[in-house]
Amino acid sequence: VQLVESGGGLVQAGDSLRLSCAASGRTFSRYAMSWFRQAPGKEREFVAKISWSGASTYYTDSVKGRFTISRVNAKNTAYLQMNSLKPEDTAVYYCAADLNGVVASWGQGTQVTVSS
Predict the structure, then answer these.
(1) Which has the closest alpha carbon to 51: 28, 20, 74, 83?
(2) Using a CB cutoff of 8 Å and minimum separation of 24, what contacts does 34-37 make?
(3) Number of C-beta neighbours around residue 100 at 10 A
(4) How far is the C-alpha of 112 from the C-alpha of 95, rounded, in Å?
(5) What are the tens digits of pLDDT across the range 28-65?
(6) CB–CB of 38/91 below 8 Å?
(7) Contact between residue 86 and residue 114 where contact means Cβ atoms under 8 Å apart
(8) Which of 18, 34, 63, 100 is close enough to 67 for a disulfide, judged by CB 3.0 to 4.6 Å?
(9) CB under 8 Å to 7, separation ≥6 — which residues?
């Protein structure tokens, strides 16, 4: 599966953004989908994950209550709604397709910059 992220940009603290991750192929619904991010000089970190059906979601503590992960299998697309953005959310955001706990594919990333 090939993944393409979009929706990043430059916003002010407190604003919202919605990232999209469009997948190619017919097998999108087989994969759990995750979002990761990597800030300058830091390691890539997990942000959120959604099961193949959308029934289960998981978040890192720093984004709980502010970010929402979702998916529409009929559109082969996963989303990350980000509200109340903070400068520390600034990073390149990547989506990943996960099959049985193993990342099978990464997107190219989309830059999110939050100014204070």
Answers:
(1) 28
(2) 34/95, 34/96, 34/98, 34/103, 35/69, 35/78, 35/80, 35/93, 35/94, 35/95, 35/96, 36/93, 36/94, 36/95, 36/96, 37/89, 37/91, 37/92, 37/93, 37/94, 37/112
(3) 8
(4) 13
(5) 999 999 999 999 999 999 999 999 999 999 999 999 99
(6) yes
(7) yes
(8) 63
(9) 17, 18, 19, 20, 110
Confidence grade of residue 101 (pLDDT, cut at 50, 70, 90) = confident
- The mean pLDDT value of the chain amounts to 96
pLDDT at 25 over 80: no
- The type of residue at 100 is N
SS3 per-residue string spanning the chain: CCEEEECCEEEECCCCEEEEEEECCCCHHHCEEEEEEECCCCCCEEEEEECCCCCCEEECHHHCCCEEEEEEHHHCEEEEEECCCCHHHCEEEEEEEEECCEEEEECCCEEEEEEC
